[in-house]
Amino acid sequence: MQKEGVRSQAVRREFLTGIRDQLPLLLGVVPFGLIFGALAISVGVSPAAAQGFSLFVFAGSAQFIAVSLIGESASALVVIATIALVNLRHALYSASLAPSLAKLGRPWKLALGWLLTDEAFAMASRRYRSGELENAHWYTLGTGLTLWAAWQISTAVGIALGASLPQGLPLDFALPLTFLALVVPSLVDRPTLAAALAAGLLGLALFNLPFHLGLVGATFAGVGLGLALESTTRPRDEGPIG
Amino acid sequence: MAESTVWLVILGGMAATYLTRLSFILFIPAERVPKFLRRGLKYIPPAVLSAILLPELVIRDGSLELALSNHRLVAGMIAALVAWRLRNTWLTIATGMLALWLLL
User: Fold this and answer.
1) What residue ranges do the domains of chain B occupy?
2) pTM for this prediction
3) Nearest chain B Cα to A74, which residue?
């Protein structure tokens, strides 16, 4: 009994620490959720579907692109493919956390996988780099649930405010800014910089292709250039998951 | 887009996102992935995000605009500077939005 009590206390502490550590990141997440809700309404997405994006897709930048594309009358298939492409970075997060979560049961993997956003990953990976890992999954659950709740509530408030927002407010600009905020700090070496520049310029050149198909070609070209440069300049590098 | 089509997008987007998040946690042991694929994976986010981002900044009303009169480009460059120096998502977005708002 005594031991059980100590354990549940440790679990509780991990969970609460996870919540507490996630709070500063909500400064960025909450306005983002507000803007998403308002933006979705402004392109003609229904309130239920706008909340549905946050409830079921639960991926900030992909949700922004999805509703922007819907506003530009892209086809459903292109929007889904774009969501998939934009969220491919989550495979990196998945690969990065997999060894730390390997011993957990399936329900835990399903739950933490669902909550694996940029911000939750940032906090969890930091936690897993520090010692005493027995209950770290409770920390990860705390960060993930905090973010999830904040995202749902801020989306709902954004939907409610959407119609009352002043006309001409350049809310859609938050979308490219989010990508800027994600991309620029990741340009830490030449191959990555080259991949980003090549894909960006090709994306520009192919901008007039229908249904944003240029994105796909530009991405593959960028990845190819990054790999080519990497194998010529730094043949031993294996990347973050190598 | 019809309401039912939007829900199709939501369900498709959910499946794509969730399966991606579960990929290595649940389905694929990392050591089973070919090395070149593992290397390529890390270039996908900067590549795809840049390919979306750059047109958003420099294409206005369907044509290329590289002049300083393109407020989104100027605000974007200020935000990029903040992102590069401070590496803070929130500050990057806030600065960019504020810059655009002041320029308009």
Assistant:
1) 1-34, 43-104
2) 0.69
3) B1
